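Supplementary Methods, section 5.1.

A reviewer requested that the exact input to the structure prediction be made available. We therefore reproduce it here, unchanged from the version used in the analyses.
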Amino acid sequence: MDDLVWDQGVVKLAGVPGRQVDLATLARVAGGMPESDAVRQALDGEPGLEATRFCTPVHSTWAAGVHAAVVEVVPDTGFVKVLRYLVVHDCGRLINPMIVDGQVQGALAQGIGGALYERLVFDRTGQLLTATLMDYLLPTASEVPGAEIRHVETPSATNALGARGAGEGGIIPVNAVIAQAVEDALRPLGVQVDAMPLTPDLIRQWFANFSARGDA
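The structure derived from this sequence is encoded token-by-token as follows.
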């Protein structure tokens, strides 16, 4: 083994020009399709091949997007319903539009969870009190609207595909967008949204504070 040299995807025999085998051949051998009995004997009949390579891009590919939401706030219950949610997203060339749409829709659901439902509660000793789905509230399909998704394709100049990232653009703005929509709906109350999630208890407290000031 000391005489073997790995060079650019090829295993070479040191000091013997022309004696080499490429990774594809090794993969066929390791997968149970040997090129010769000698190679099979060398592997003792045990399949298996693992190779790792790393790529460090020279340039990042930044995506861009705009989100907008229409919400309804029910004063009596404090419940917030997302009526419409619009996403305009530019992740460069769309290689698989259906996958990108699914990514945006799933990310929106996760964002709505963080904005309106999901809350980590700890007691004084640091014990997590919302450790199960009995206590940790998640949005269901009825709480997540179908996102109205529009795509703008501006090909990236930093890679041959012209693609940009689509992984995070669907979730990063959601909390801020919903917070701003709720704050706009509660503008007569003079509320500044500075806490998340926007639970019914929190919103009812804002209405109670407004009434206590005698502004109702």
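The mean pLDDT is 87. These observations are discussed further in the main text.
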